[in-house]
Amino acid sequence: GQTDTGRGCLLCAADVYRPAAIKQLQLLGEQIGVEVFTLGVDANPVDIAKDAVTRAMELQGETGKPYTVIVDTAGRQVIDGPLM
Q1: Which of 67, 66, 13, 65 has its CA nearest to residue 41?
Q2: Is 51 exposed, middle or buried (0-12, 13-18, 19+ CB in 10 A)?
Q3: What is the spatial distance between Cα 74 and Cα 66, in angstroms, rounded to a whole number?
Q4: Cα 1 to chain center, whole Å?
Q5: How many whole angstroms separate alpha carbon 74 and alpha carbon 33?
Q6: Do residues 8 and 60 touch, judged by C-beta distance below 8 A?
């Protein structure tokens, strides 16, 4: 989706551990008019993020506007230090 700043925004659903999080982000995207990119729960989160950047570059080529990609991943807690 486009914003009044002249930039586009692409949401990336990469929380493969919680399918409901992907659905929630898709619903939010619909509500605010922003495309949500996902490859589903069977894909690697890193691959999802890389492909989302590729999609944003495609959108930039189509619109002539730069795109910001916001990646939603599985959250980490302080106790998950080695994973951060």
Answers
A1: 13
A2: middle
A3: 26
A4: 12
A5: 23
A6: yes
Given the structure tokens 């807690």, which residue do they identify? 77
Residue-wise pLDDT for 8-60, tens only, equals 999 999 999 899 999 999 999 999 999 999 999 999 999 999 999 999 999 99
Best CA proximity match to 37, nearest among 6, 5, 74, 9? 9
**Distance (Å, rounded) from C-alpha 6 to C-alpha 8?**
7
Asked if 1 and 34 count as a contact pair (C-beta separation under 8 A), the reply is yes
Which residues, including other chains, have CB under 8 Å from residue 71's CB and lie 6 or more apart? 12, 14, 49, 52
